[in-house]
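Propose amino acids for all 124 sites.
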């Protein structure tokens, strides 16, 4: 008698899990957000993207392309984005190597290069 109760209890649990999964997969499948702008990312993700751009800059040395990439994240002011990301990276304890990459990127983009990039961006 006790074994029968345990069997039906286990069967009910399994049927409930199966019905829940079936409902979730068939009736209400998850949907990816539509039109989610990259500018709405959290600070940690933005910092990671800026770090990736800094790694790209170290490898390729193409300042204009890096500024184009950063403008995707912060169209108003990509330079401030680098500074903000550097500050955030220091606060949460990024490795020294990554901090150096961010600092290098920030120091390599001078006002003249930034102005040339803005002029070029305005003509496209």
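Proposal:
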């Amino acid at each position: 008698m006790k074994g029968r109760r345990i069997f039906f209890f286990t069967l009910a649990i399994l049927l409930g899990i199966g019905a829940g999964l079936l409902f979730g997969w068939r009736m209400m499948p998850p949907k990816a957000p539509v039109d989610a702008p990259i500018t709405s990312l959290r600070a940690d993700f933005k910092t990671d993207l800026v770090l990736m751009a800094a790694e790209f800059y170290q490898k390729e040395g193409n300042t204009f392309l890096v500024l184009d990439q950063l403008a995707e994240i912060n169209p108003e002011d990509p330079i401030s984005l680098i500074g903000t990301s550097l500050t955030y990276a220091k606060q949460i304890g990024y490795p020294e190597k990554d901090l150096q990459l961010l600092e290098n990127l920030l120091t390599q983009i001078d006002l003249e290069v930034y102005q040339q990039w803005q002029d070029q961006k305005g003509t496209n």
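The mean pLDDT is 89. The CA atoms of residues 58 and 106 lie 12 Å apart.
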